[in-house]
Amino acid sequence: MASICFYFQVHQPYRLRRYQIFDIGKNNNYFDEQKNFQILKKVADKCYLPTNRLMHSLIEKYDGKFKISYSISGVAIEQFQEYCPEVLESFMDLVDTGCVELLNETYHHSLAWLHSKEEFKRQIMLHKNLMKSLFNFTPTIFRNTELIFNNEIAKFIQELGYEGIVAEGADQILGWRSPNFVYTPKTANKIKLLLKNYKLSDDVAFRFSNKTWSEWPLTTGKFVSWLKAVNGDTINLFMDYETFGEHQWRDTGIFNFLRHLPEDVFKAGIEFKTPTETLRANSPVAELDMHHLTSWADTERDLSAWIGNKMQDAALKELYKVESSILKANNPELLNQWRRLQTSDHFYYMCTKWFSDGDVHKYFNPYDSPYDSFIAFMNVLQDLNFRINSNSNNLNFNKKELKEEKADLSYIN
Amino acid sequence: MFGWEFPPFKSGGLGTHCYGLTKAMTSKDIEVTFVMPKAPGKVHSDFVKLIASNQVRAYQVEGSGNLRLISASSSISSPYLTPEQYQAMLEKHSEFFRKHKNILSMKGGRVLIQDDCAALSTSTTYGQNLFDEVFRYALKGEEVAMVEDFDIIHCHDWMTFQAGIRAKAVSGKPLVVTVHSTGFDRTGGHPNQYEYDLEKMGMHMADRIIAVSEFTKSQIVKHYGIKPAKVSVVYNAVDHDVLQGEQVQRLNETDKIVLFLGRITIQKGPDYFIDAAKKVLEIDPNVKFVMAGSGDMMGMMIDKVAAMGIADKFIWAGFVTGKDVDRCYQMADVYVMPSISEPFGITPLEAIANDTPVIISKQSGVSEVLNHALKVDFWDINEMANKILAVLRYKELNHELKQHGAMEVRAMTWGKVADGTIQVYHRTITE
C-alpha cells in the first residue's frame, strides 16, 4: 500500500512599499515594514502557531509515526526572527522531534534559475547553511521555487549532490503515468523525483471549503478511502502550509480534519514517510524526460504567473542586469536588498493573466493592480541603480582619500 | 424616450449614451420614439425618427426603421449652453424660485400646473433660458404622449424628468429614468436646490431607476432617499469606430504629452491635474500638458498655471468636437481623468479605443468596470504625478495597459447596454 509523504511550503515575501518616483535618490527604505509585520502576525496567529502546535501534538500522540516535511524560505525565517520569534522556536521544536524533514530551496524564494545559475547556487548554499545553523539539519532533497522543474535543473541539482527533487506531478511531465511512484530524471539518474499528486493535494488545499464541490464536505473518512484506493508506492501531498487556517479558515473545519486524519490513516493500514524515507524505500519505476519548465501554479502548471508579460520580463531583466555591479560593490545592505527583490512574489503581483476576473491572484496581491506593483518595483530598481553608482564613486573616493592620508603621514614622518 | 441631447447636439456623455443606446435597441426590434428639444436639421440617422415637440401635431419625421426622433424647435438659439451660461442661468433661476415657492408644490403627482408654466413663459425676466425650455419641453412631452403609441416611457437626467412625469400621468404607462449624473457630482457636493428638487421628484415618480454605476446608485440612495432595490445599474459603453490611419501629430521630437479632456469645471478636477503637472515637471521637464475643454474654471486655471511658472508647459485646446477628439487622444502619451465625482466617465474608454493608456480617479463609475487602467484618488497629486511619470518612463507598462485595456474595452458595447436596459423595461412592465 502506498505511504503518505507530506511536504508543506512555508514562505512570506518582503512586500514593497508604494515606492514613488519622488523617492528615488532620497529613500532607500524599500520594504513596507508595517504591512509585512501585520501580515506575518496575522498568518502566525491564524496558521503557523496553531498548526505547529497541532503537528507537535500529533507527532507525540503517534509516537513518531506521524511524519512531515517543510521547506521554509530564508526570507520567511528572517521575518519570523524579526517579527515573531515564537514561530521560529516552534519550528525548531518540531524539527527536534526527529519526525520532521527540511527541504533545501533558494534562500530568497527566487527565480534565479532563470537568469543566473551562479546566483541560484549561492542562494541554495545560503539556505543550506541557514538550515544547518538554525535547525542543525542538513537537507538532502531540493525544492525549487514554485516547484519549477525541468531536465536541466535536475542535472544541476544532481551535481550539487542532492538525493532528490520534489516537483509538480504535471500532466506535461507524466503523460499517462501516475504521480504515485518514484521516478528519476532522464538527465540525472543519480537522483530521484517525488511528484505531487495534485488531485488529492488540491482536494485539501483548494477545494476543502468549496461548497459547490460535489464532494463537499470533505471528511477524513472519505479522504482516507481515496488514499486507500491509490495504486502505487507513495501519495505525495504537497501544499502551502498556509492552507491550514489562512487559505482555509478555522471555521471550515480544516484543523479538525488534520487532527483526525492520522488516526484514520493508521486504521486503514497506511504509513507516513518523510521525502527521504520515501526515496530510499522505493526504486524509480521509470525515467522522465522534461524539456519544458513546469511549476505547481494555476491550471497551466507553467511559469506564466511570473514571467511572460512585458512588465515581468523587463523587471526581471533589469534586476539581474545589476548582478555583477552589486557583487562588486561589496556592500552587504545593497546585496541583501537586491536579493529580497528577487523573491518570486514580486513578479506574481505583476501578472495580468486573470486580472480581469478577480480571482486568486487578486487575493494574494497587496497592490490594487499589477500595474501598481510594477511601478513600485521599477522605481525601487532605479534607486538601487542610483546607489550602486554612488557606492562605486564613494569607493573610488575613499581609495583616493586613503592615498592622500598616507601621503600626509609620510610628510609628518 | 425623452433625451436632451442627440448627436451632433451634445455636450457630454448623455448624448453619446442616447445615440449608442437607441441605435443598439432598434437593432433588437425595440421601436423608439425619441423626443428632443431642438430641431435636428443636421442629424443623419438611418435608424431614427425625430419628433419636434413644439409642433407635435405636425411633426417632422426623420429617418426610418425602428427609431423616430421628435424634436422641439427651440425659442432660444440653442438649448445647449456653455458651462458659463448654464451656471449663470442656474443662479438666476433658483432666485426666481425662491421668490415663487408655490410653483414647485406637487399637485396630484404633477410637477407644474399649466398656469405656472404660463407664468414662466410670460416672464420676460426669465424667458429665453434653459429652465423655460425645460418646462416647454415638459408640456410638449405630455402632448407627444397623448398621440404616440408606446409601452414604456424612458427619461434621461433631470431636464427631461417633468416631461416623463407628465407623459406617465396622461398615458398611465410606466416610467423609467436614467441618472447620468446628479447635482452632487456637477457641483462638487453643493447642488442647486431647484435642480435637486426636480431630480428627486423624477426619481420618486419613476417606477424604476437606471444608474450608470454603483457609484451613482449609492449617491441616489444616499442623497435622494431612494430604496436600493429600485435602482438597477447599467454601465455605459463606447463607440469603437475611431479615427484611423492618420499620421499622429507630435509637438516636437522630445516632449511627451499628457492630456486632460473634459469640461474645465470643479467636477472634473482640473486643479488637481495642474498640481500633479507641477510635480511631474520637477522630475521631467520634457513634458507638455494639453487641456482640451472649456468651462467656468478655465480663467482661474490659466491664472494658476501662470502663477506656478509653468505656463510654457501648457496648451489650451479649447472645446474639441468630432474627429478632433480622436486626434487629441491619439497624440497623447497618457490620458488623465482626475474627476472628483464622476458618475461614469466615458472618456477613458474613448482614450483606450484610441490606443492611449489612462489614469482615472477612483471616485468614478468607470473605475468599477475598467481593470486595466491606473487608478488614483483625485486628491493624491503625488501618486497622480508618480503614475504619469511611470507611464511616460516605463514602456512595458504603457504596452501592457494598452494591450489589455483594448481587449477589455472592446467588450463594452452599446448592444450590452441595450440588453441591460431592455431587461429593466421587462422588469418594470411585469412588476
Tags for this model:
heterodimer, A: 413 residues, alpha/beta, 7-stranded beta/alpha barrel, 2 domains, four-stranded parallel β-sheet, globular, B: 431 residues, Rossmann fold, 16 helices, 44% helix, 13% strand
The CATH topology annotation of the largest domain in chain B reads as Rossmann fold
Shape of chain B: globular
**What characterizes the major β-sheet of chain B?**
6 strands, parallel
**Contiguous uncertain segments of 5+ residues of chain A:** 407-413
**What is the correct CATH architecture of the largest domain in chain A?**
Alpha-Beta Barrel
Return the structural class of chain B. alpha/beta
CATH class of the largest domain in chain A: Alpha Beta
Q: State Rg of chain B.
A: 22 Å
Spatial strand order of the main sheet of chain B: 10-9-8-11-12-13
- In whole angstroms, the N-to-C terminal distance of chain B is 20 Å
Number of helical stretches of at least 4 residues of chain B: 16
Q: What is the succession of H and E elements of chain A?
A: EHEHHEHHEHEHEEHHEHHEHHHHHH
Q: How many individual β-strands of chain A? A: 9
> Biggest sheet of chain A, in brief?
4 strands, parallel
DSSP helical segment count of chain A: 17
Question: In percent, how much strand structure appears in the residues of chain B?
Answer: 5-15%
Class computed from helices, strands and strand pairing of chain A: alpha/beta
